Amino acid sequence: MLEIRSARADDLDQIAELEQKCFPAAEAADRNTIKERLNVFPNHFWLLERDGKLVSVVDGMVSDSGHLDDRMYEDASLHQEDGKYQMIFGVETDPQFRGRGYAQILMKEVIKDCINDSRKGIILHCKDNLVPFYSKLGFHLEG
Question: Of 109, 9, 6, 18, which is closest to residue 55 (Cα–Cα)?
Fold first, then answer.
C-alpha cells in the first residue's frame, strides 16, 4: 500500500539515510542540515511510503525568489512560507525501488500541492540525464 505524507521530526534518520544513498557525498545534505530543514519546513517534505517503508522523498523550501540560490540549500531560515516559488532540493528514490514510478507519483503530488497553494512555479536543478523526466511532468529547461 502506498501512502504520501508530510515529514515528522522522527523521520530524520530515514530521510538522512536515503539522502546519502541517492546523492554523491559532495552533494548530499548532511543530517544536521536535514534536521534544520525539518524544524523549519516539515510540510515541504513529501514522503512516499510503501507498506510502511520510506521509498521516496521530495523536499525544498519556499521563496519569493525566482532563482534557486546555493545559499538556500544550507540556510533553512531563508524559507518564506507564503513565497511564490517552491524550490526543490532533492527528489530521491531508494535505489532498490527505482524504475517503478514512485518519484513521478510524488512529484505529481508536489505539483498538485503547489497549484493548491497558488505558487507561481516550482524551481529545481537537475543533471542533464534527468531533463526528460522533468519535461514529462511539465517542467521547462531554462538553462
Answer: 18
What separation in angstroms does the CA of 99 have from each of 15, 37, 55, 130? 20, 28, 12, 13
pLDDT number for residue 141: 86
**Strand, helix or coil at 93?**
strand
Distance of alpha carbon 114 from its chain centroid, rounded?
13
What does the H/E/C string look like for 46-90? EEEEECCEEEEEEECCEECCCCCCHHHHHCHHHCCCCCCEEEECE
Q: What does the block give as the cell for 139?
A: 517542467
- Do the beta carbons of residue 15 and residue 48 sit within 8 Å? no
Strand order in the sheet with 85-88: 62-63, 85-88, 121-124
What's the predicted TM-score (pTM) here? 0.94
